[in-house]
Amino acid sequence: MADPVKTQSLRTARVLENEERILRAAHRLFVQQGYRATTLTAVAEEAGVASRTVYVRFGTKAAVLKRVIDMAVVGDLAPVDVRGRDWFRTATSAATLAERIAAFTRGGARLARSAADVVAVSREAEPTEPLLAEQAHAGRAATYDAVRTFWTRAQEDGLLPPTCDLAWLVRTTALAAHIDTYLLLREMEPGAEEAYETWLTTTFERALRGADGG
Prior knowledge:
It contains ten helices and no strands. By secondary structure, the protein is mostly helical. It starts with a helix and ends with a helix.
């Protein structure tokens, strides 16, 4: 008799494998063709699965793109958000502020490079797709919250000057860390993405000095 637990585990693994294959195929097509020209049938063909599989699993094209962005942001399908990732834990627990800034900007730059192309596709679709507009709003709030957590932990651990204007520091660096800023920099200066991590690190360091009212 088959082990029901093992059977269920195998089914779950197959479902996740199919989902990842679909999302990676969708990522390629959205970036190559744009939102309007990409169809769920084309995604299914690119992924090598039946069209019904895509429709049953996701329902709509907007839902597919939303999940593509979710996966691009964290790097996989594991149910762990940005704040639960190793790089963010290092950024909020390392011994020195320099180590924390390095971890945060390295992780943030990697996230931006991974997700920028599909986020750009989403920005074009948001006016007609409420689900994507809602995701964009949530993403901005999540970025702000992550940056606020980063600096608040540093303050609680005694790593910030006592006269630091924390609210100003959070607002300023959250703008710098947001993926829309990365997209704007890339548009204004082709090749800027290669230097983004260095720019973000410098911005955080200089903003910290500017926030010190002492």
